[in-house]
Amino acid sequence: MNVDLHCHSTASDGALAPACVVARAHEHGVRLLALTDHDTLDGLTEARDAAAALGMGWVSGVEMSCTWGGATIHVLGYGFALDAPALNDALEQLHAGRWLRAEEIDRRLAAKGMPGALEGARAIQAALGDSRNAPARPHFADYLIQQGHVPDRPTAFRKWLGAGKIGDVKQHWPSLEATIATLRSANAWVSLAHPMHYDFNRSKRRRLVTEYLQAGGHAIEVVNGHQADEQTGTLAILAREFGLLASAGSDFHGPGNWGEIGSYRSMPDDLPLLWERFRHDRACIPAGI
Q1: What pLDDT does residue 280 have?
Q2: d(C-alpha 245, C-alpha 222), whole Å
Q3: Is residue 255 part of a domain?
Q4: What span, in angstroms and rounded, lies between the C-alpha atoms of 48 and 208?
Q5: In whole angstroms, how large is the CA radius of gyration of the chain?
Q6: What is the CATH number of the domain that holds 106?
Q7: How far is CA 155 from CA 144, 152, 185, 283, in A?
Q8: Ranges of the chain whose pLDDT falls below 70
C-alpha cells in the first residue's frame, strides 16, 4: 500500500485545495492518505469526502506547532475525531496566534519599506482557495516576489522571512508536552515531524526524542520527502533505540515544491510502521479499504 501521512493544502500553506490534493495523491498511487495542514482541521471534511469517492483509505491528520528547547517543533496527530473538544479548542488558540504573527510580519516588512504585505499575502492566499486562516510565510514570500522586492522564494526567506530574519516572528506556541497531551486526549496517534529539520546537534536531538517519548509520543517521522539517506539512517537508529513506531510522508505543499505527493525515500525494512496500527483502528480507514 502506498501511504502518505504528511501533506498540505490551501487550508494552511499548500497550493492545492484539499480535494485536489487527494485527487493528485490518488493519481500518484497513494492508497492511504492523511492531510496534515498546519494548526487547522479546516480541510479534513473535504479531503475525507474526496477520498471516499475515490475509494482511498483516509486518516484524519494535523500538524501542530509547539515549543521545545527554545525552538519551534512540529508534531503530527492522526486518527482523531474531527469534533474532539480539547483539540479544537487548542487549534482555535493557535489560529488566533497565527493571525497575530501575520500582523507582526506585516508591521516589520512595512518598516523596511515593503508596505501592504498582509493584505497582499492574504490576496495571494485567497486566490489559491478559501481559507479563514492567517497567511503563512510562503504567502508573504509570493507577495514580495509580486511586488519586485525579491526574485524568488529562496531569496525572500534568505533576506526577510527565514530563521533569524525580521519576518521570523516567534509565536508563543504551547509546549511540546501540552501539545502531545492535547492530541492524546483526542485519542490520536502522535508522530514527531521531520526531526532532522531542526537545527540541533546530535545530543540535543536525542534529548528531544527522549522528552517526546516521555510526554507520550508514539512515532517518529523517519522519512520526510527526499531527505538525505544518512538522515533516514540516523532517524531509523533513533526509532530502534527508543522503541518508536516509524512514519513517512512526502511533506507535499504543491507541484514543484518539496517534491511530489506519495514520493519519498524508502523506509528501512525492520521498523514497526505507524500506519500498520491504523488497520486495527476502524475510525481511521473507511470500510472496504
Answers
A1: 57
A2: 9
A3: no
A4: 33
A5: 18
A6: 1.10.150.650
A7: 10, 6, 41, 43
A8: 1, 130, 257-258, 279-289
What does the block give as the cell for 1?
Answer: 500500500
**pLDDT cut 90: percent of the chain above it:** 83
Domain of residue 125 covers 91-161
Q: What is the pLDDT of residue 1?
A: 56
Q: 176, 75 in Cβ contact below 8 A?
A: yes
User: Bridge-partner residues for 224, per DSSP?
Assistant: 249
SS3 track for the chain: CCEECCECCCCCCCCCCHHHHHHHHHHCCCCEECCCCECCCCCHHHHHHHHHHHCCEECCEEEEEEEECCEEEEEEEECCCCCCHHHHHHHHHHHHHHHHHHHHHHHHHHHCCCCCHHHHHHHHHHHHCCCCCCCCHHHHHHHHHHCCCCCCHHHHHHHHHCCCCCCCCCCCCCEHHHHHHHHHHCCCEEEECCHHHCCCCHHHHHHHHHHHHHHCCCEEEEEECCCCHHHHHHHHHHHHHHCCEEEEECCECECCECCCCCCCCCCCCCCCEHHHHHCCCCCCCCCCC
pLDDT of amino acid 288: 37
Cβ atoms of residues 242 and 206 within 8 Å: no
- Pick the closest to residue 221 from 205, 232, 207 (CA basis): 232
Question: Is residue 12 assigned to a domain?
Answer: no
pLDDT at 283: 53
Query: How many structural domains are present in the chain?
Result: 1
In a domain, 95, yes or no: yes
Q: What is the pTM of this model?
A: 0.87
Pick from 183, 216, 224: nearest CA to 61: 183
Task: Answer for the pair 200, 70: CB distance below 8 angstroms, yes or no.
Answer: no
Evaluate whether residue 283 is within a structural domain.
no
User: 104 is written with which cell numbers?
Assistant: 507582526
* C-alpha span between 248 and 145 (Å, rounded): 32
Backbone φ, ψ for residue 196 (5° rounding): -85, -5
